[in-house]
Amino acid sequence: MGLIVQKFGGTSVANIERIQNVAKRVKKTKDEGNDVVIVLSAMAGETNRLIELAKSIQKAPDPRELDVLLATGEQVSIALFSMAAKEVGLKAVSFLGYQIPIQTDPAHGKARIHEIPTEKLKKAISSGAIPVVAGFQGIDPEGDITTLGRGGSDTTAVALAVALGADMCEIYTDVPGVFTTDPNICRLARKIDKISYEEMLELASLGAKVLEIRSVEFAMRYKMPIHVRSSFSDEPGTMVVEEDESMEKILVSAVTYSRNEARITISKVPDKPGIAAKIFSPVTDANIVVDMIIQNTRAGDLTDLTFTVARSDYERAMEIVDKVAKEIGAERVAGDPHIAKVSIVGVGMKNHAGVAAKMFRILSDHGINILMISTSEIKISCVIDEKYTELAVRALHEGFGLDKNNEQ
Amino acid sequence: MGLIVQKFGGTSVANIERIQNVAKRVKKTKDEGNDVVIVLSAMAGETNRLIELAKSIQKAPDPRELDVLLATGEQVSIALFSMAAKEVGLKAVSFLGYQIPIQTDPAHGKARIHEIPTEKLKKAISSGAIPVVAGFQGIDPEGDITTLGRGGSDTTAVALAVALGADMCEIYTDVPGVFTTDPNICRLARKIDKISYEEMLELASLGAKVLEIRSVEFAMRYKMPIHVRSSFSDEPGTMVVEEDESMEKILVSAVTYSRNEARITISKVPDKPGIAAKIFSPVTDANIVVDMIIQNTRAGDLTDLTFTVARSDYERAMEIVDKVAKEIGAERVAGDPHIAKVSIVGVGMKNHAGVAAKMFRILSDHGINILMISTSEIKISCVIDEKYTELAVRALHEGFGLDKNNEQ
Fold this sequence. Notes:
Structural class of chain A: alpha/beta
CATH class of the largest domain in chain A: Alpha Beta
CATH superfamily of the largest domain in chain A: Acetylglutamate kinase-like
CATH architecture of the largest domain in chain A: 3-Layer(aba) Sandwich
Number of helices of chain A: 12
Largest sheet of chain A: 8 strands, mixed
Number of domains of chain A: 2
Order of helices and strands of chain A: EHEHHEEEHEEEHEEHHEEHEHEEHEHEEH
CATH topology of the largest domain in chain A: Carbamate kinase
Oligomer: homodimer
């Protein structure tokens, strides 16, 4: 008995049959005595289809009009789902962003939610109805449609759960939960029953697509429990909650990796104050995100700078850096688009020494050379040659005992 | 120089290329010094696709949610068109129904426009922008999305033109204008240069699909000139305007026909007061529209009642009438689903005797038997055997000189 916000992703509403199945699942939750609010994504593939249409007209589609276009995806979902819900005997009523209204800033394509008045939703709930809310969309102070960016429906769901004081936010997806690593690479990957917000945040930053990063930030700030689970099964998934004692006992919760990486090195840069700014300003001005940066000082006031960017930005970044290198009198620019990043994440690291050393030893034992290292309080990332990705992931997963159980 | 509302139908925005062509056409109008407001339909086929989706979930889709669903069609059009307009250098800005807002009653699927505030549109126009308005949609007093019914974008365009005090409402479609008859049946059909609101209203009632009937009523009430023309050519189309002297000289402006007709006869009905209500109430209660009705009195307080319905309603109507006939003691029910209705329309009829006689004679000269007749001030319709449809249309078109020129 409580108030539950349930969000269903694009694959969960990909076709009529799945929409009907989701309606049955929602009915079950309602029949168990809960109040329910539904948040939906666009049907799988729809957002990409619309983006293609837009790009066939404008290479860089007008941001305001692109949001008007993309918002139709969720609009279709909530209308069809509300019909399906009525067919199974539920009293459902759809809500678009402007009808609640979900108030955002005017940053089209990456808007942030400012406020969600709850009067209309609460009125609907207390009348016994199930509000079916379009994810991903809001309106700005001018009344223009905004969208929250990829995965934005997760944020809509968590923000709604917080605004309504819900007991739980359930995120339904096409996988059974958060895994200790990618099951496609490591057969021994296990579903994690419980994970802290901080760890989930690191995993999301490292490219785990199961939850959108801003939704985790939002949940962490307001301590809203998230239950990530499969819409195709009744099995419990992964609870994303506040850190507790049991979690601290676990050194490493998950191993993750990213192949979308490329490395650029500028050698023998005259080491003067402001040189880093000179190199990185034009790169970030071109909307290229720089991830890891390492600086090695050589003899004679010369320095080497190495950094990583997304592989899709590699060529553009190389062009920019080549130009800058000449301007600042650097000797040489070298790049490598065939690298990968493997990371281990765990709140247990905070209180345990030697986790990093263990990681380096495991990689070394398997003959894997570490090219770059970056650490946070609960995460260690190593850049390696791309061809070792699977080997590294499996070795770390086994080495930190993730193939056994959560208690080490 | 003036303010022109231009409405483009589904075939005019059916794909990206056509949308881009429409943008170029709008630019031409703007470059000629006019202010322009655009109204768009959904891309051809999209509304039907959405209806199919809805019907695969609910046989009779929930009206509120169906409107939420269907409104996405025009939303996609205005977003894509605004992008295309920007690509050709226009300052375009899209408006959804709720953003203007186009205020309607809450009759989902057949809403009527109550009011259109023009502040936002006028502000956009005076800033040099081209408002691109979603046709077919509005919002009701609750803030729910409504739609105006099939062809509703025509009504949106005319209502906007009236509200803005525009000089002209141009309706762009896939035909060059209004024709003296269907060119598919009669090779000698000619485009009509100018037609009165009243005649256009009759033609729309008789099934001519070039203009939605409510848009003509709206234009007539507020004397808004409509220019119906092709979006694929620069040729002028048909002006729909107030009746003038030149029109009165023309006996017949157009010949039209409908094959979507069926006839039902109830014979030897005891002729008591209220008998017609007893027969027709259950028919109209079943949402079946009765078109023509003829009553013949026989000897001995018995009467025969003959009426027509849409052919698609024929079987349902027969079932109902069979039941009623037994209740009221009628002798016999007979039906014929293979009839057609041919009509001639012209404001000139008002002041000319003998038009009806001429029509009957032309049909008779071609061996066509008239089964039923119905007339209005500017229209005569005859029900005939379906197999004579083409023959009747060609004979009337030639007989009234429509293959020559407008002055008879």
